[in-house]
Each structure stands twice: as C-alpha cells, then as structure tokens.
Amino acid sequence: MRVSDLPPSSTVPNSSRRRFLRGLLGSGAAVGLLGGATVAQSYRHGVTRHTRPLPGLQAPLRVAFLTDLHYGLFIHENNVQGWIDATNAERPDLVLLGGDLMDYRTDGPPTPLLAQLARLRAPLGVYGVWGNHDYGSFGYYGNRHYGSKRSDWQARREELRVAFAAAGVTLLRNEGRTPRADLHIGGVDDLWHGQPDAAAALAEAGGRATLLVSHNPDLLPDLLAPVGLVLCGHTHGGQVRFPLLGAPMVPSRYGQKYAMGWVTGAHATPAYVSRGLGVSGLPVRNLCTPEITMLTLNPA
C-alpha cells in the first residue's frame, strides 16, 4: 500500500493520498506518527473472531485468514514467527493467505519467510494468492524500492510459486481446490497487475460451499455470480485511522467503502476485508491493529 505503487489516478483516486503523505512528512504530524506509539501499534497483532453460516457446508469449518504480511523492508522473520505461533494456537482446519506476502526485491527465495510459513498447521492445507506487492517483488514493475523492472518477471513468479509450494503453501491464480467434499476454495490473480478471473477460480465448485480469496476488494462489485464468502486484504484498513474521520488514505477506487470489516459485493455476496498484518509506505499504524482473522463457519 505504497503511494508510488498505486495505479494511475484514472483507476484509483490517489492524488489525495500523495498530498496527505507529503503534508504528513513535512509537518509536525510526522513526529507524532513516527513516534513510539504508532510504530508500536504496527507490531502488535490481535486475533479477531467471527462466526457465521456458509451455505453448502456439511460440517463446521475453522478458517484462519492472514494477509498483507509484507515480509521485507519493515517486517522480518521474528514478526512472522509471532503470527504463525498465534495462528497455530487457534487450531484452524484451513489457513488462507490473502497476498502481499513479500515486499522486497530478491533474486532468491525468501527463505526466512518460507521457513515460518512451513510451520503452519492446518489439516485441510494452506492456500494463498498473490498481491500487488508480490508483483513488485517479482520485478513486474520498478520503483525506488524494487529497482528496475525485470524482463524475466514471469519466470520469477513461477520460481517463487514452486518455492512456496515446497513450504506447504499452494498459490492459486484463477484456480481452485477442493480440500473437503463439501468445500471449494478459489483464488484469483491480483486485480492491479494480474488478470483476475473469479469464474475460473470457482468453475469446479459444483454444489459445494465456496470460499474465494482476492487480494483486492475492488473485485467485489464485478462478481458475475454469488459466492459463499470472499476474503480480501490490500487496504490495511487504511493503516492510519482517526476518530470520526476514519482513514484518510484507502487504496481503493471506492474510498472507505471496502476499507475493512464485513462488506457486501455483487449478488449480495458477503465479504470480509482484513486490516492485514504488515505495513508498507511507513512503519506506522493508528487505531488500526494488525489482525489474524479466525472464522468459524457453520452449515447454513
């Protein structure tokens, strides 16, 4: 969620984001935001728990949703270790990862991150999707943080998919899996830099309960058919929020509509937008605690 990584303003209204950051960094507010309180908030995660029905389920299901790890510049192995410990303590049946797993340019696999993800314990498996910062890490685009664009970014994406698979994480790019007879999981490509196709991800769902993972919640209004539940990240809840005002910056064409929490997509599809775990742009959060989302889903 870095200003320089946003699409053109014709796609996302980011000019206000730039003005806000410039004003923040050029004023006394920067001292406050970069002080201990907001930096500390960036590294204190919590577990949010929700219970709701999911049509098609034949038995209860416990799902852990972790998104926006942003391993790299501000997030290191010890941070990820704490998140994995907290997730395993919840004893989920299934773990889903919502993208932006990496946030740095590397020519090799993110070994410390993979070592921690390999510790996840879930009998139905660990599945995830790519996000826009993952594409920066592949070298799909360049900037001051990622360096120059790589011509071999697609090969790099495939190398990393294989590396994550070896660590027990299956990355879904417009495809699905059936980890249980009554459940289909779909994952779509990143909205900004990939080619998301929710219909392809859910094509083999049949009459099963459906869970769809999309890094970016801006996909929600464009769903072509109802989905049992969609899980998203990307927004960080705005990362910095203020009483009454909310989040001055949300990387969404819909403003604060999909900033965080329970929202509704096309065809009355329920969706949850997580505040995520990592940080980007600045290592600060305010009134926007990083979260691991635990969902207890019951037969409808």
TrEMBL record:
The keyword Zinc does not apply. Residues 61-237 form the Calcineurin-like phosphoesterase domain. Pfam families: Metallophos. PROSITE patterns: TAT (PS51318). The keyword rRNA-binding does not apply. This is Metallophosphoesterase. It comes from the Bacteria. SUPFAM superfamilies: Metallo-dependent phosphatases. One of its GO terms (molecular function) is metal ion binding. Keywords: Hydrolase, Metal-binding. GO terms for biological process: lipid A biosynthetic process. The lineage of its organism: Bacteria, Thermotogati, Deinococcota, Deinococci, Deinococcales.
